[in-house]
């Protein structure tokens, strides 16, 4: 049991460490970093599929905010650098792993959308490697990663069910066209940055901790990516065949 809950498993994984794997996993773990999502989601939204982009925003927000609350609730410490190699710095609590949870939710949603087998395999590999990177880098115990997987899977299943059942974005689009857009009042695209700011702001006032404050500031930056001026700029690049 020690292998799955403590330092022994981390030491086992790190027994294969070398300079190549150190660099490799530092880059792999970035696929679960907030800055990656800040770049990747707008590309999907603006260059490929707006509905998938909107769903990715929703999945990311739900996973990120819920993980913040869960970390503060369980209040567990990360591995000690005195017992294992810790290759990067993290200042939040350990359980559940945000990278593992987010990988299951984010890449798992894309897995449900793609049709090609090789893409599905690639996405499963990304989920596995991002999760493994957290143990290799010495910032999570195995139980943190397993917990992130389970919670992430539950969030993924629930959100997939809700989106499929209620067709949220189709409803908003039709409602907007019927009552607002045709009259020149408002466009539902503006709801994206508004909601991205309001939801974390409400959560911060309900539960004011360092973690929620951090998340709030991050999501404000995320919202800025979706204002109309930025979209117009990127669409200009699209016309030049950059997307």
TrEMBL record:
InterPro entries: PAP2/HPO (IPR000326), PAP2/HPO_sf (IPR036938). Residues 51-160 form the Phosphatidic acid phosphatase type 2/haloperoxidase domain. The keyword GTP-binding does not apply. The keyword Hydrolase does not apply. The chain crosses the membrane at residues 35-62, 121-139, 145-163, 184-207. Pfam families: PAP2. Keywords: Membrane, Transmembrane, Transmembrane helix. PANTHER family: AT30094P, SPHINGOSINE-1-PHOSPHATE PHOSPHOHYDROLASE. This is Phosphatidic acid phosphatase type 2/haloperoxidase domain-containing protein.
């Amino acid at each position: 049991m020690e292998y799955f809950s403590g330092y022994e498993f981390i030491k086992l994984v790190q027994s294969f460490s070398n300079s190549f794997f150190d660099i490799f996993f530092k880059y792999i773990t970035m696929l679960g970093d907030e800055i990656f999502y800040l770049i990747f989601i707008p590309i999907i939204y603006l260059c490929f599929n707006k509905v998938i982009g909107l769903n990715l925003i929703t999945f990311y927000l739900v996973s990120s905010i819920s993980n913040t609350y869960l970390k503060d609730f369980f209040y567990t410490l990360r591995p000690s650098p005195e017992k294992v190699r810790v290759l990067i710095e993290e200042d939040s609590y350990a359980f559940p792993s945000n990278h593992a949870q987010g990988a299951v939710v984010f890449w798992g949603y894309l897995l449900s959308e793609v049709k090609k087998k090789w893409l599905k395999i690639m996405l499963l590999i990304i989920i596995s490697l991002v999760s493994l990177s957290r143990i290799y880098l010495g910032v999570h115990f195995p139980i943190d990663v397993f917990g992130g997987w389970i919670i992430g899977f539950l969030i993924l299943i629930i959100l997939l069910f809700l989106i499929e059942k209620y067709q949220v974005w189709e409803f908003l689009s039709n409602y907007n066209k019927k009552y607002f857009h045709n009259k020149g009042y408002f466009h539902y695209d503006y709801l994206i940055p508004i909601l991205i700011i309001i939801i974390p702001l409400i959560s911060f006032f309900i539960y004011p901790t360092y973690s929620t404050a951090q998340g709030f500031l991050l999501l404000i930056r995320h919202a800025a990516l979706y204002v109309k001026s930025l979209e117009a700029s990127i669409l200009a690049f699209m016309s030049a065949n950059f997307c």
